[in-house]
Design the sequence.
């Protein structure tokens, strides 16, 4: 299954790269105006995430949700746990109920296809990899990010060989089909909100293809019973 996932990911990525040329970091005001609402609510979203962190053993590791991601999730014996509220349009009712403020925002933004609270263990390294699909963009919001000795966010995102530090209340809209990796260079948990957002402004044929692919993945999620 992992080989099939890799092959299909490369094929889809190549198709989109031939038609869409945009930089790794994009303007959220243009492509995801709803970002402002999530940023404004970050203290309340942090509180909901910290409540979950008190019972972190109940939150699955990424590779427990998606076995094909074991190489980047189970690579070093340190946890990367993911609390999934929505997956390609399918809401997970119990998880939405556990985070009512975040759930209300997610439900009110139709461009948000997936929503996850990401818990990165101390000293966890997520190896260099690429996402499969330019039809969605990644929005990241720092909720509880430890600081290093210089007072900077200790969690580092290397995206297309450039480093980004997304601290508490900071956000970034980025294209995860570019090579990227993450380090938590601290002794504390890093918590971030990750949203997969429908890409706006694509050529018409790419927009149609994206709708079909998103619908297909959503059907697969429903078939697996995530909702």
Sequence:
């Amino acid at each position: 299954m992992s080989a099939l996932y890799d092959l299909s990911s490369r094929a889809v990525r190549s198709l989109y790269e031939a038609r869409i040329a945009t930089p790794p970091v994009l303007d959220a005001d243009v492509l995801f105006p709803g970002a402002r609402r999530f940023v404004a609510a970050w203290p309340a979203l942090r509180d909901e995430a910290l409540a979950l962190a008190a019972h972190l053993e109940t939150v699955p590791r990424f590779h427990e949700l998606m076995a094909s991601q074991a190489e980047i999730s189970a690579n070093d014996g340190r946890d990367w746990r993911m609390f999934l509220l929505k997956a390609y349009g399918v809401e997970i009712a119990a998880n939405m109920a556990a985070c009512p403020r975040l759930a209300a925002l997610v439900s009110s933004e139709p461009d948000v296809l997936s929503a996850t609270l990401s818990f990165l263990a101390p000293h966890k390294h997520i190896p260099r990899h690429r996402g499969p699909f330019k039809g969605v963009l990644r929005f990241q919001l720092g909720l509880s990010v430890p600081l290093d000795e210089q007072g900077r966010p200790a969690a580092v995102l290397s995206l297309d060989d450039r480093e980004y530090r997304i601290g508490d209340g900071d956000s970034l809209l980025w294209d995860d089909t570019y090579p990227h990796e993450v380090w938590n260079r601290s002794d504390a948990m890093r918590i971030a909100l990750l949203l997969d957002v429908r890409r706006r402004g694509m050529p018409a044929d790419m927009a149609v293809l994206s709708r079909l692919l998103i619908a297909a993945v959503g059907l697969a999620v429903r078939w697996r019973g995530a909702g």
Observations:
- The first helix runs from residue 2 to 17.
- The chain has one domain: 20-224.
- Residues 1-5 have pLDDT under 50 and may be disordered.
- The chain has nine helices and eleven strands.
